[in-house]
Amino acid sequence: MTDDELRLNIQSLHAACHGLFEASQRHDAQIAENGTYLRALAQTAEQTLGSIKRREQIADDTLDSIKRLERIAAAHQDHFEDHERRSEDVEG
Question: In degrees, to the nearest 5, what angle opens at C-alpha 15 toward C-alphas 11 and 21?
């Protein structure tokens, strides 16, 4: 191999190494960007889960309130019906 051929091969190898280094740098930057995105996504998922749990608690509390109101309404209805029967008995 002549000196010129050797020099050309070395230059070609150097250019290939430089291209590989630049590609590696781009790849590392993409990995870092993906890591940042994944951390933000995990934080958003955690916040969403917290919101869902709070809404679930609100729904449970609301259901309990509705059940209490139903019991109160039923008791009032029973009380009203008793008064109505007594009123009918007194009139009759």
Answer: 145
